[in-house]
Amino acid sequence: MTQKELSYLEDAIRHEDSIISIINNTISNLNDENLISFFKNEVDIHSDIKVHLIELLEVKSNG
Predict the structure, then answer these.
(1) Half-sphere exposure of 9 (CA within 13 A, CB side)
(2) pLDDT tens digits, residue range 7-40?
(3) Are 46 and 19 in contact (CB under 8 A)?
(4) Residues 17, 12: Cα–Cα separation, whole Å
(5) Helix crossing, 33-62 with 3-28: angle to 10°?
């Protein structure tokens, strides 16, 4: 994997961190339990994506 591709993965991980942070901030400002539940699910989805990207980065940077 090229350095440019590794940088892309690092950027994608930072992007997921940003999305998770924004969603968590949104959750803290909500009162509607349905919306809170929806956004918590979104945090789970983006956390899973982040984990997958980190695993991919580790595999590609070590091999």
Answers:
(1) 16
(2) 999 999 999 999 999 999 999 999 999 999 999 9
(3) yes
(4) 9
(5) 160
Kindly report the pTM of this predicted structure.
0.90
Q: In the predicted model, is pLDDT for residue 46 greater than 70?
A: yes
Please give the structure tokens belonging to residue 63. Answer: 């091999």
Length of the chain: 63
Residue given tokens 């440019």 in the structure block: 4
CA 22 to chain centre: 11
Q: Per DSSP, which regions of 1-63 are E strands?
A: none
Sequence letter at residue 51: V
Cα dist. 59→17, 30, 39 in Å?
A: 20, 38, 30
